[in-house]
């Protein structure tokens, strides 16, 4: 209706100068299509939505990256920890068996002074060979005997004081006077403390 009125006014105003084609073009210029406006608005909204979706995706990607880095660090720590534990297990795998054999070594140490008094040299040599073989076999598995002698400082990390006696001299006060039972270490771990007498 509006287009018809506009068409009539333009036709009446400039009958001689404007052709019908020009009038139609004028009408089209004057009357903007609302569908075009809606399409432009929709396109703008879609661009805004796309931008916001991109931002959301970027945030999600950043979160995933952070989570991946945390998981990677945790897994790396887990690998290192299990590797250390495995090495420790290998080091002390024979701990129970070796600990059970320590009294046998003690018996050899107590018996040897009496056996060496025997006139049977073959017996003495045979027992010494057995003792040495046992000690060397256990040493090959990582067993280390602690060397404790009179005058050493008393060390609670290595020694166990079974008694205290008056020090024979001033320089032995608070120090080891005698070692009653040999202590042993398996690799770097103490499996039996050296039993010592401490001067006071």
UniProtKB/TrEMBL annotation:
Q: Does the keyword Chaperone apply?
A: yes
Give its localization: Cytoplasm
An example GO biological process term is: protein folding
Q: Which domain of life is it from?
A: Bacteria
**Coiled coil: which residue ranges?**
40-74
Drop me one GO molecular function for this one.
adenyl-nucleotide exchange factor activity
Keyword terms of this UniProt record: Chaperone, Coiled coil, Cytoplasm, Stress response
Role noted for this protein:
Participates actively in the response to hyperosmotic and heat shock by preventing the aggregation of stress-denatured proteins, in association with DnaK and GrpE. It is the nucleotide exchange factor for DnaK and may function as a thermosensor. Unfolded proteins bind initially to DnaJ; upon interaction with the DnaJ-bound protein, DnaK hydrolyzes its bound ATP, resulting in the formation of a stable complex. GrpE releases ADP from DnaK; ATP binding to DnaK triggers the release of the substrate protein, thus completing the reaction cycle.
Q: What is the protein's given name?
A: Protein GrpE
Query: What organism does the UniProt record list as the source?
Result: Faecalibacter macacae
Upper classification of the organism: Bacteria, Pseudomonadati, Bacteroidota, Flavobacteriia, Flavobacteriales
């Amino acid at each position: 209706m509006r287009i018809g009125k506009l068409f009539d006014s333009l036709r009446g105003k400039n009958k001689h100068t404007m052709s019908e084609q020009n009038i139609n073009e004028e009408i089209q210029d004057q009357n903007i299509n609302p569908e075009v406006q809606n399409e432009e608005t929709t396109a703008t909204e879609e661009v805004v939505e796309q931008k916001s979706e991109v931002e959301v995706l970027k945030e999600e990607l950043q979160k995933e990256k952070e989570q991946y880095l945390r998981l990677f660090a945790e897994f790396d720590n887990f690998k290192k920890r299990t590797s250390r534990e495995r090495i420790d297990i290998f080091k002390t795998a024979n701990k129970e068996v070796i600990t059970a054999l320590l009294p046998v070594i003690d018996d050899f140490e107590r018996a040897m002074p009496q056996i060496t008094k025997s006139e049977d040299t073959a017996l003495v040599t045979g027992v010494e060979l057995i003792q040495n073989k046992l000690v060397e076999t256990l040493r090959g598995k990582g067993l280390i005997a602690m060397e404790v002698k009179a005058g050493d400082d008393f060390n609670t990390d290595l020694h166990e004081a079974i008694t205290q006696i008056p020090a024979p001299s001033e320089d032995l006060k608070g120090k080891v006077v005698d070692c009653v039972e040999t202590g042993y270490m398996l690799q770097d771990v103490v499996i039996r403390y050296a039993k010592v007498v401490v001067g006071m």
